[in-house]
Specification:
single chain; about 280 residues; alpha+beta; 2 domains; disordered C terminus
Length: about 280
Amino acid sequence: MRWKCEAEAFEKAERRKAVELVDAAKRENRAPLIFATAAERWWHEVGQYTKETDLEDALKWLTGQIGGKRALHTIRDDDIAKAVAERRTHMVKAGHDDKGKQLYRPISARTVNRTGVYLLRRIMLRARDKWNTVIFKMPEWSEHALKEKKQPIRELMIEEEDRIAAIEGSYAAVREFATITGLRLDEVLLAWTQVDFDNAVVRLIAKGDEPRIVPLSKRAYAILWGERARDPEWVFTFVAKRTRTCLKTGQKIHQGPALSDHLLGHLDTSQAHLAKGWRQSALA
């Protein structure tokens, strides 16, 4: 029958491809790699330098889920589907009820993707492309990623901004500057070497390590101009309430005044972090 002949031909072609891949791997001196070794190497080369604070724990969980002794080239779509299903059962704290009892909610689809599917993909792609590791066929990653719910844009109301302005103290200038320019948390931690008053711009390295030139409006220019005499190196500074040294990293941390949790709830993510102690990394 025709369909039988076509099936046999397809099977032979796939076997031939597999043999060619094995021969190519042998010629290139490529070797298998177990997942625990790959995860540890990826952490030391990449993971520890990212800003994702939960990656180390995610790697430990993923290693236990996949199996530390599992060879990378044996990981299949079925393994990823099981990992996603398991990760979706994990819970995070979600405030308290009226009686003070701790509440929990499932982790978001974004977290499942970032600490599961995408994390595994990052490790396997680096192993294949950078470490000369044998991986004959990559899983269908897009088939496992969950659909992420988009959040509506939250903007401050005039009365909310007035309430924050009334108590924010030394954070006023930097918060207004961040609002005007739309810069991210790390981007607003400016040194004077990045500020060009003559051309009314600031120069920085944006997300993705891309150089970026940001033009300054009259108000943004005035804010920077008003900060000139405060510190010879950093644009936005403050008098620390107390300092400490992180035992894990050795980084010196300077803590300034913080806004109340109630008012922080009215800020977007970048502004909330800004108010909680954004100058920590700038003054380390």
